[in-house]
Structure formats: C-alpha cells, structure tokens
Write a structure and sequence with these properties.
alpha/beta, 14 helices, binds phosphoenolpyruvate, binds magnesium ion, phosphoenolpyruvate--protein phosphotransferase
Length: 324
C-alpha cells in the first residue's frame, strides 16, 4: 500500500472532476525538507521556526537564523514558504528562556512574547527577509493572535525591518503577511483581520483545544479532544464563509488537514490550501483523487447536521470506505 501511495508524488492533487486542492507541508527541522519534496508538496504552509530555537543553546543570531531560513526558501523555490514567527510558551519552552506560569496555554505565548520583546521579533524578521533576497517566496505568519492591535503592531515591525534592510541596499520584495486563526475570538473578527493581511491560516490544533477547553496534551481528557466535534466543524465552516469574498486566501495547517476525512471536509468548505506533516500527504492526496468535489460537498452538508463527534466519525467512515 505504502508503495502505491508513494507513486502518487508526481500526480496532481485534484478530484475526479478536476478541482485542484493544493497540498503543502509543515516543516521544522532541516530533515523535513527532503521528505517533503519527495512527497510532491506544493510549498510549505507552516515552518515552525521555534524548532531551530529549541535545539539551540541560546537565541540564534540573525545570521544563524538567516542560514536556516535560506535553506528552506531555496529548497522549495519557487514554491512559497510560510514562516511562522517564534511560537514559544504553552507547551514549547526554550531552555534558555524559562516561562513559569500557572496556565501556560492561556498565558505568555506566541505573538504575546515577541511583541513584548520586539528585539527578538525584529531580529527574526530581518533574518527571514535577508534570507528571501533574490527568491521572494517568503510568507510571514503570526501565531496566537487574539486582537487587531497585535496584527497592526506586528505589521509595523515587519515594515520597519523591511525598510531598514532596503536602505541597507538589499533588493527585497514585500513578503505576504498572514495571521493564524487559533484563538476562538478571532473567528468573529475574520473580516476585520482579513482587511489587514494577505492570508489566514487556521491552527486547528489550538483552535480545537481552546474551543472545547481541552488541553491538547493531557491524556486524561484526550477523548474529549476532537476536531470532528460539531462545534469545531461549524467554527471551521464559519471561518471559511467569513473569509470568502475578502482578499485573503485561507489555509489550514493543523493535524486535521493531514487526516483524509478532515481534508475532504475542508476542501468542501472552500479552504484554498491545506498544510500537513509530509507523511500524511500521500494518503490525503489519494482520498482527494478518489472523489468529486460535489461528493465532498454532499458529505459536508450531511456532517454539519450531526450532533456529536462520534456521529460525525461514524458517518465519515461509511462514506470514505464506500470511496474505496
Ligand atoms: C495549530 O495550533 O494547529 C498549529 C498548526 O500550530 P501548533 O501545532 O504548532 O501550535
Ligand atoms: Mg498553534
């Protein structure tokens, strides 16, 4: 079976009726690059930049970061690489930057940390921009956004770094800037956020955790954590509806995109791209190639009427197995 799936790498990700669903990969380590290219990814939808920070013994310098980012941008060129600014806090700690809090997932996380430390943010953005010189396939993505002020402040800092580097003589194009939708409150500000940026990407791992108030890493409540919970599916659908008609493209880069059942529903909702761990790409592509877009839409309409995750999972199992 695996062999059959590997053979898909060169085939397009499209439905039986010719609808194209671009599949991207999530990366973090340099090793992820070869793996992703072998699986026929159409770019990077999420580069978790905290990974190189986590394997370092101190904050990596601007030139050290630049080298890591250049490697990613070059490997995927001319396809886009979406680099997320440092997303530490929550469950991701840097040994040289301890954060001790009673509620880390509700605390100092992601953009909250870097906006409080603009020097860290600026060094990182400068390194990304320097790395993109001559390639121009860089997108910058902001994690854990919970209000419009954070979006505006981040854009101001990125613009400042861009102008500084241009005046230093670099030939740069402005990167696309995007916001992660992973804090439930932002679901209700999608149109306002979409006016400020170029793309949105849903972090379904955190969005599920926060919508259902279930720690994504706590085994005791693991059976309550499901992205197939009707509340989550309705939230994802609401985001797609709200984004539709804005100038933003919409992606989803959580684990749900790497589950063929999730991918099919997201395609039906109108997500423009899906980003997943490379190992899941072949099975997602295989599922997409086996059905028509209208089959996916019918399935979505049926699933959105159900009341529990269990019902959703059971109904999906039936349809997916009928697809062979
Ligand atoms: C997410 O929250 O869904 C996501 C993609 O980011 P991370 O898993 O790194 O928090
Ligand atoms: Mg997240």
């Amino acid at each position: 079976l695996q062999k059959g799936l590997e053979d898909l790498a060169g085939l397009p990700s499209e439905t039986l009726d010719g609808f194209k669903m671009p599949l991207m990969v999530n990366t973090g380590l340099a090793q992820d690059i070869t793996h992703s290219l072998n699986h026929g990814a159409e770019g990077v939808g999420l580069f978790r930049t905290e990974v190189p920070f986590m394997v370092s013994e101190r904050f990596p310098s601007e030139s050290e970061q630049q080298a890591v980012y250049r490697e990613q941008l070059e490997a995927f060129y001319p396809q886009p690489v979406t680099m997320r600014t440092l997303d530490i806090g929550g469950d991701k700690a840097l040994p040289y930057f301890p954060i001790n809090e009673a509620n880390p997932f509700l605390g100092w996380r992601g953009i909250r940390v870097t906006l409080d430390h603009p020097e860290v943010f600026l060094v990182q953005v400068r390194a990304m921009l320097r790395a993109s010189e001559g390639l121009n396939n860089l997108n910058i993505m902001l994690p854990m956004i919970s209000n419009l002020r954070e979006v505006a402040e981040s854009i101001t800092l990125i613009e400042r770094a861009y102008k500084e580097l241009c005046s230093e003589g670099l030939q740069l194009e402005r990167p696309n800037i995007g916001v992660m939708i992973e804090v439930p409150g932002t679901i209700y500000q999608v149109p306002q956020i979409a006016r400020l940026v170029d793309f949105l990407s849903v972090g379904s791992n955190d969005l599920t955790q926060y919508l259902l108030a279930v720690d994504r890493n706590n085994p005791r409540v693991a059976d309550l954590y499901s992205s197939f919970h009707p509340a989550v599916l309705n939230a994802l659908n609401t985001i797609a509806r709200a984004c539709h008609g804005s100038r933003c493209s919409l992606s989803l880069c959580g684990e749900l995109a790497g589950d063929p059942r999730g991918a099919v529903l997201l395609m039906a909702m109108g997500y423009d791209t899906l980003s997943m761990n490379a190992v899941n790409l072949p099975r997602v592509k295989s599922a997409i190639r086996k059905l028509r877009k209208t089959d996916a839409e019918n399935l979505l309409n049926q699933v959105l009427l159900l009341n529990t995750s269990e019902e959703v999972v059971a109904s999906m199992a039936e349809t997916m197995s009928n697809l062979g």
